[in-house]
Amino acid sequence: MLGVEFSQDGDRYIATTKISDDFSKARSWFGSNSGKRFSIDYTIHMPKSNALQIRNKYGNIFIDEMKGFVDIDLKYGDMNINKLTRGDDKPMNQISIAYGKISLVECNWLKLQASYSKIGIERSKAVILISKYSKGNLGKMSSLVGENSYDNYQIGDLSNLVITGKYSNFRLTALPRKPISM
């Protein structure tokens, strides 16, 4: 059996996909060689100013614009985000991605943890980037602070860069106006 369980905890709404062992067994019996695929898609409409928390494994995420706090954990999927406009309020927006790809057009402040992933950020104010075995293009940003291992990044226009890297490559297309700390 395949189903979705909806629940509420105070002002928090929760949707959980439930996949029974019987469904998993039937899927493995018929699914791997039958060429048939299935997907479970959620479309959620909510005010941009609300807080958003997503825990997703084996799926993709698309967000148009969020002004509220964002906390996302994605494994084995891709993420496309147009705008994260929350400022430097505490807690800072945070995204964790593993074995996936993130494409972010514009964000203000963000803490991004990535492993074995591809990262693309066009414009941002401040990003804390903690990553390993990842690569990407980081466009125009005011500040980038990071701890990186075994990474490859191309970095565009920025004002401030503080990086601690192990076995990583960083290519700067424009030098910051302030001294670089690496």
Strand content: over 45%
Count of helical regions:
1
Gyration radius over CA: 19 Å
Given as residue ranges, the uncertain stretches (5+ residues, pLDDT < 50) are none
Overall tally of domains:
2
Kindly report the average pLDDT value. Answer: 89
Shape: globular
Work out the number of β strands: 13
> What would you call the structural class?
mainly beta
Attribute tags:
two-stranded antiparallel sheet, mainly beta, 13 strands, 1 helix, 182 residues, 2 domains
Task: List the topology elements.
Elements: E1 2-9, E2 12-19, H1 21-34, E3 52-57, E4 61-66, E5 70-75, E6 78-84, E7 94-98, E8 101-115, E9 118-132, E10 135-149, E11 152-155, E12 158-166, E13 169-172
Parallel strand pairs: 3-5, 4-6, 5-7, 6-8, 7-8, 8-9, 9-10, 10-11, 10-12, 11-13
Antiparallel strand pairs: 1-2
Please explain how this structure is put together.
This protein is mainly β and 182 residues long. 8% of the residues lie in helices and 59% in strands. The protein has one helix and 13 strands. The protein is globular and about 60 Å long. 22% of the residues are buried.
